[in-house]
Amino acid sequence: MPIKNWIKYRYKTRYFRKIRDYFHYLIGLIGTACLLPFQSTDSLSAKNIKRILLIRLDRIGDMVLTTPAFAAIRSAFPNARITLLSRSYVKPLVISNPNLDQFIEYDRSFSFYAKIRVIGQLRLLRSELAIVLNTDFSSGLIAFLSGAKYRIGNNHKEAGFFFTTAVNDQTRSGQIKHTVESTLDLIRALKVPMNEKKELFVSITEEGEKYVVQFFKKHKLDDTDLIIAIHPGSRQPYIRWRKEGFAEVADRLIEEYNAKVILIGGPGESQIINDVLSLMKYSSIVIDPPIKLTELVSLLNRCHLFIGNSTGTMHIAAALKVPVVAIFGSKHPMDSYKKWSPWGEGHIVVSRDVGCLECHPGDCARDFECMKLISADNVLKAVEKSNFLTDRTQINTD
């Protein structure tokens, strides 16, 4: 981007962000004043909590990283009925989670009347406690409309007034915490005894296992093969490493390790996969999107290594204890590897420090130099340091 256009763009985006911030502040003041008569001043008593509503209305990776919080809540309220309200596409990840009793779907595509019906369903639950695990206005509003006496959530400027206990999100003040920890902070705010195992969980289904059996037959794979999954896509272009890099890494894994490389693509990523393939010397196995989430989980569970950008797929691999080599660029607090790195042991983050304090997504003065400077050698050195060649004795079979 020419420097003149960049200055104009940067000024414009900062100007609109400032207007947005003032607007959110105004909403917060009005909301606090309007809802003050409805806020309970009673202290929460764990023995009186029989029904709990959890709300998480965002993406796949966020849901995976929230599963330690589910376990913590269950340990604190072992006899409570726990209901999760979330997007329909994340349901396969939690379908067999022992810490949840019920799943209710709530999608953006729902009509107004469908959303009203869901609110009615939530009110019939008669939950005493609602915990909002993501930060947006609609989630806070749903918690308030559910009728829960106690409502916990992040003290975000546009939604904090909906909660009886609003927890400060340190990430937004520049003190970066991993998402697992910041989500657990919401549960810690209850000030009740709990067990914090901090282990991720994803459901493995019969449907997914049947798919893998057929997949292995189709591609003539068996358990003696070294299987490496590579996901070159991501939700946002600015967190994607370059396609040439992924192609070189894949070729060298085939040359140096005799690996069976599987290229994984999410919805809308067919072109990215095709581009990587066109840059490779060797052939690899391709997962044509879309692949069902149940199938993706079971397939990743049979891999020895995962390489990719910051995505939900990366977090699923980490939850399955598949060694992960994750490629990160942006240092913005909301995209930093400190907040989104693969959780657990045996994972390696590849990044380059180019001296930036932080950058805002889509507003980079250096054309994402931090991502461009990451070489295939950097990634392959991380592969060597990982423990992916050791036997995986902790494969999830639940």
Q: What are the secondary-structure elements, in order, as H or E?
A: HEHEHEHEHEEHHEHEHEHEHEHEHH
Please give the order of strands in the largest beta sheet.
Answer: 3-2-1-4-5-6
Instruction: Give the terminus-to-terminus CA distance.
Output: 50 Å
Q: Give the class-level CATH name of the largest domain.
A: Alpha Beta
| Shape annotation | globular
Task: Tell me what you see in this structure.
With 398 residues, the protein is of the alpha/beta class. It folds into two domains: 20-188, Glycogen Phosphorylase B (Rossmann fold, 3-Layer(aba) Sandwich); 206-385, Rossmann fold, CATH 3.40.50. Helix content is 40%, strand content 13%. It contains 14 helices and twelve strands. A six-stranded parallel beta sheet has the order 3-2-1-4-5-6, sandwiched between helices. A six-stranded parallel beta sheet has the order 9-8-7-10-11-12, sandwiched between helices. Strand 2 (81-86), helix 3 and strand 3 form a beta-alpha-beta unit. Helix 8 (243-257) crosses helix 14 (376-385). The protein is globular, with a radius of gyration of 22 Å. Residues 1-12 and 392-398 have low confidence and may be disordered.
